[in-house]
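Why do we bother with a discrete structure alphabet at all? Because it lets us treat a fold like text: something you can write down, compare, and reason about line by line. To make this less abstract, here is a complete entry for Amidohydrolase. Read it the way you would read a sentence in a foreign language you are learning: slowly, and without expecting to understand everything at once.
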Amino acid sequence: MEYYFDTHQLYHDFEHLHDTPEIAFQEYRTSRFIQKELKKIGFSVRKLGDTGLLAHMEGKQPGPAIALRADMDALSFYKEDGSVQLLHACGHDAHSAMVLAAGRHFAAQNIDEGILYLLFQPGEESMLGAKRILAHGLPHIDGMIGIHLRPKIEMPLGSATPALLHCASLPITAHFHGKAAHAARPFLGINAVSSAAMLIHAVDTLTWDTDEDWSAKATVVDSHQNQHNIIPEFCSVTLDIRAQSNELGSSITQKIKMLAKEAADKFGTTLSFEENPGYAPNYDPSLIDICRNAINTVLGKAEPPTHTPGSEDFHAYSMIGGIPTAYIGLGADLLPGLHSPDMHFDHSCLPIGTAILIEAVNSCFKRIAPHAAAPKSEC
């Protein structure tokens, strides 16, 4: 396939980013590299927090404000010797390289009408990155597009979907507070672990009358002490909730809160919750159509909207920020899967994804009406 942009530079950028893995909110070298490259090619760049970046380039005439978003953070893994290894095992290096390459293309070609924003977001893996970006404040954006590599089992190389349908991710931690005592005299204490165990069992037997995909399970238990002869005063249970829709996720969360209260009442513990909700998508139909046409142009045929049990904090931009969004799933022959220390993919997907982003942005500039009250730029 012939491309009309610098694929050599694209691969160079990817290799640099791949060799600089940094975990959530510590993407300092990554951010500095991207900022330097963006300024070189004429983008104005605003820092959002310590590592987030919002770059923009204005066209010759007023028009819609279109954003491409890339995540930047890597993951950490424990090795057999106990040391920690940082790796780009979710493809965020690829996403940043593709968005940067699209930016290079538009900087070289110039923009006739509108504003192009490039958003490089930290901390996606924490599910807090998008929320923090929104807290820093974004200018008016008429449409935002994201992209993510997909596992081979879900989408092979040479295919792409204009609408990757994530599940909502709704982690919730129930904190039970009892009373410590010597384990030989349990009647003098209130065992917080007993409440936690009751909650875990109740969640494991939970059923729901729905055709939608969902799951709920305990993933972390912490009693804040490791002495076998002490009745634990504290115990926390973190539950991972996944749901195909935000409405179902909310219903399951409320049910689990009720089960936790019953477990607290049963053993006399007090209860508090900690939540960090992540949303299922609420895509803009016109943006999905634009991305579908872009995929058709590059690959000949777009895949239909595709469900995945994974989650993405990208959806905070629409659910909290009110920004019209679409999110492309890109086939990459990725094996054995995301978040595996052995993750690898076919790098020839990088120019494919870049070409799709460029086609989508060009269509957005032609088809999306600009917001009448939007200023030229607030970057």
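What the structure line is telling us, in plain words: Residues 372-376 have pLDDT under 50 and may be disordered. The CA atoms of residues 58 and 115 lie 4 Å apart.
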